[in-house]
Write a structure and sequence with these properties.
- With 243 residues, the chain is mainly alpha-helical.
- The chain has one domain.
- It has helices at 11-30, 39-44, 46-55, 57-73, 79-115, 119-125, 127-139, 141-150, 156-165, 170-180, 182-200, 206-209, 212-234.
- The longest helix has 37 residues, at 79-115.
- The two termini are 39 Å apart.
- The relative contact order is 0.12.
Length: 243
Amino acid sequence: MTDTDAPKKKPWQRLLPIGVIALALLAFYAFGLQEFIALESLRKNQSLVQDYAEAHRFKSMLLTIAIYASLTAISFPGGAVLTLLSGFVLGTLYGGISVVIGATIGATIIFLAGRSAAGDIIARKGGEKMARLEAGFAKNSLSYLFILRLVPLFPFWLINLAASAFRVPLKNYVVATFFGIMPGTFVYASVGAGFSSITESADVGLETLGRAEILLPIAGLVALSLLPVFIKKYTNVSQGDDS
């Protein structure tokens, strides 16, 4: 049986995956689960959490991947904070690796859910932003999506749904997401790791704040924040042209 021969799903069946994701996000806030991933909460239990992470590195990474994938899948709007926390607990390398894997898995889940949830409806109701994204994906979905992941010109969740709505090939989506989010992820993870070193210091002064593990991540964050300006100036990606 071909796709054209298959019975069409009813509107509620097509929107069910997105509805489940929306309810999961509401439930997350309703039960106050965001308090457990707050930086202040982890700071109070820093020694306990980091001792466990050091003693059980692989388990801690798997847990971080699972949490990040789940929260990305429900479009939790705190990806930057979660990445900082991952670096805070696991350090730059292990925290960054965990986030890249978890974010890619979670983004793929929402991508597949969006495909079955009437991507054409999403595209029609998306307005000017969706029209720009559609033009970019039509030219070269892999390179355009890579740039969108590298430079946050559009919200992460919007890119997920747009890529789904405009039928970006799954392989291109996964590859561009995995490699495109790496630079920003490791910068944020390094900032989190640097914050960890501050809280571990008994005496925090100018000397502490001038250490390389503090200054280098901040410099990376500044460079990352300037990247969209550079991209917009020398390319037309914001107008959906990646040529």
